[in-house]
Amino acid sequence: MKKSKLDRRGDRKVYNGKYHVKNPQRYKGDPTNVVYRSNWEKQCCIFLDDDPRVEWWNSEEFVVPYWSDLDKKRHRYFIDFAVKWKSGKTTLIEVKPKRQTAPPKRKNLQETYTFVRNMNKWEAADQVAKDNGWEFVIWTEEELKKYGILKKQPGRLNPLPRYKKKKKLT
């Protein structure tokens, strides 16, 4: 895996980078151009690349056209992951924080816009999945923990230890 870039956007950290596929024979698409846009997506890449139940997988290679209720135009939605399991089942997966899967609780125009756009995307993805006998799912932090994809990261919840001044040796 290549080292990820760390950006700051507002009050949160955003991880993005390129994932180096370990099993390119199981990646359907260009295994040299697998991009992740969050640490959760990176962890999903690792999981899908390593999981023996996966026949093939890809990241942002499957495109779903959708109609936007916001600007009344057609757009393209790049699904986070498409997975064909050895069981024969195909799953389209979107990775999102749980808070982004429910209507905003406060009247915030940007959050409302994002929610409506996501709902339009997800309705279109769900219909494409149903039309093909697949399933469309959204993996939030709950599913990522349940499936063992998100593991507790050391030091993530605990503050950094305070710097202790070293004593001079004389």
Topology:
Elements: E1 5-9, E2 12-19, E3 34-36, H1 39-50, E4 54-59, E5 63-67, E6 74-78, E7 81-85, E8 90-95, H2 109-131, E9 135-139, H3 141-146
Parallel strand pairs: 8-9
Antiparallel strand pairs: 1-2, 2-3, 4-7, 5-6, 7-8
On the 0 to 100 scale, the average pLDDT is: 87
Tally of distinct domains: 1
Tell me the helix content.
Answer: 10-25%
* Residue windows where pLDDT falls under 50 for at least 5 positions: 154-166
Q: What is the CATH first-level class name?
A: Alpha Beta
- Our count of helices gives 3
Characterize the overall form. Answer: globular
Q: Beta-strand percentage?
A: 25-35%
Radius of gyration: 19 Å
Main β-sheet: number of strands, strand sense, barrel status?
A: 4 strands, mixed
Query: What is the CATH T-level topology?
Result: Trna Endonuclease, Chain: A, domain 1
Strand-and-helix sequence, N→C?
Answer: EEEHEEEEEHEH
Structural class: alpha+beta
Which CATH architecture is right?
3-Layer(aba) Sandwich
The total count of strands amounts to 9
Within the largest sheet, what's the order of strands?
A: 4-7-8-9
Distance linking N and C termini = 45 Å
Question: Could you write a compact summary of the structure shown?
Answer:
With 170 residues, this protein is of the alpha+beta class. Helix content is 24%, strand content 28%.
